Amino acid sequence: MVRKKEFYGIAFIALICFLLIAFCQKDTPAIRHRSVSFQAIELDESIPEEEHISMEEILNIQRNRLKRDLYGYKLPSNHSLIDLTLEAGGEPIRTVILTTWRSGSTFLGDIINSLPGNYYHYEPLLDYGIMQIRGPPHSDSAISVLKSLLNCDYTDLYRYLKFGMSHVYLFTHNKRLWNQCEAFPDYCWEPDFLNEFCKLFPFQSMKTVRLRLKLAEELLEDKSLNVKIILLVRDPRGTLQSRRHRDWCPGVPDCDQPTYLCSDMVSDYSAAIRLKQLYPSRFRALRYEDLSLKPYQITEDIFEFMGLSLHPEVKDFLDTHTTSNVGGVSSTFRDSKNTPFHWKSDLNYTEIQLIEEACHEAMNLWGYVRTESSNLKDFIPIKSYEIQ
Ligand SMILES: *[C@@H]1O[C@H](CO)[C@@H](O)[C@H](O)[C@H]1NC(C)=O
Ligand SMILES: *[C@@H]1O[C@H](CO)[C@@H](O)[C@H](O)[C@H]1NC(C)=O
């Protein structure tokens, strides 16, 4: 009985299909003809405009977008958007995250970039390769690149742009720029365009994993930049475990040697003491573990530090990025409360002890607890710390 019903059903559908095909074939020439002429009219009017869209038009679209996206968002001390944009002679709110590889800066960088109106200078020192910049010979050029970008001046950044053209992730993280690059690729790597486009944005954020903190004092000293710096620190056991999974890291001492990582952490700590005294309102340090365990509270602290209130879209970002484990290794869609502590199960005890041996002082300063036995199930690796 059922079989019979199915058969009739299929036969009926087949009949309808047949009729439809016959009908379409009969009408096709007319329809095609009409659509061609219709498209021709459209083509004449719209495509040339798209192709020849001027830089000024793109900038205008972005100006309007920013007004729309920031509508109703309270800017600090009654500033209007114009007071915060370089193109109008204002001063943007600039924030630099300073850290090292695999210390949670993708997560923190994306939190800040979820703020509408933010322009994200992602890893401006990528073209230096896998190295730490601790002083000459690279410190001057590195600082000068950072300053140029924070001033939206791409004019002399030939090497940076050339590198970016073959490593587009330099720009893709800057989603508000990348949207325009995808729509109008001709302008994307043009300094003339980038200079003007960047200057529209009231919030300018940057993250770098290659520059050590003592060198960043030069950025804080520059009054015209009025930049804020967040030093992001992570448990060296977590950092080194995470780095092992990157193919660009093993074999490079700056990256895979605990002694290098941890002497940088000690020197960053000394620099942190100094900067906290000199620039209490423009410098702060943050541990990745604390951010992961209390993402809402710490994010609110960070925005307060930036002089801003928490935008609903930042809250949305946290809602969607701090609960479940989705995505690949560089994904920030993950269980933020467990991610920092994967090393406890991923490193064997011999490896943990080797790191703790090399990192004794750094761990002490930054409040990371040494293990006492190989049973790590209930081991809590962090305690409080102070910069003083
Ligand atoms: C902001 O503007 C309002 C009204 O325009 C005023 O009452 C308030 O005092 C201002 N606040 C600051 C911090 O200037
Ligand atoms: C720990 O890991 C290292 C490699 O990273 C290996 O050489 C060593 O044998 C391991 N030790 C134990 C006890 O499993």
From TrEMBL:
<dbReference type="InterPro" id="IPR000863">
    <property type="entry name" value="Sulfotransferase_dom"/>
</dbReference>
<dbReference type="InterPro" id="IPR051135">
    <property type="entry name" value="Gal/GlcNAc/GalNAc_ST"/>
</dbReference>
<feature type="domain" description="Sulfotransferase">
    <location>
        <begin position="94"/>
        <end position="366"/>
    </location>
</feature>
<dbReference type="Pfam" id="PF00685">
    <property type="entry name" value="Sulfotransfer_1"/>
</dbReference>
<dbReference type="GO" id="GO:0001517">
    <property type="term" value="F:N-acetylglucosamine 6-O-sulfotransferase activity"/>
</dbReference>
<dbReference type="GO" id="GO:0006790">
    <property type="term" value="P:sulfur compound metabolic process"/>
</dbReference>
<dbReference type="GO" id="GO:0006044">
    <property type="term" value="P:N-acetylglucosamine metabolic process"/>
</dbReference>
<protein>
    <recommendedName>
        <fullName>Sulfotransferase domain-containing protein</fullName>
    </recommendedName>
</protein>
<dbReference type="InterPro" id="IPR027417">
    <property type="entry name" value="P-loop_NTPase"/>
</dbReference>
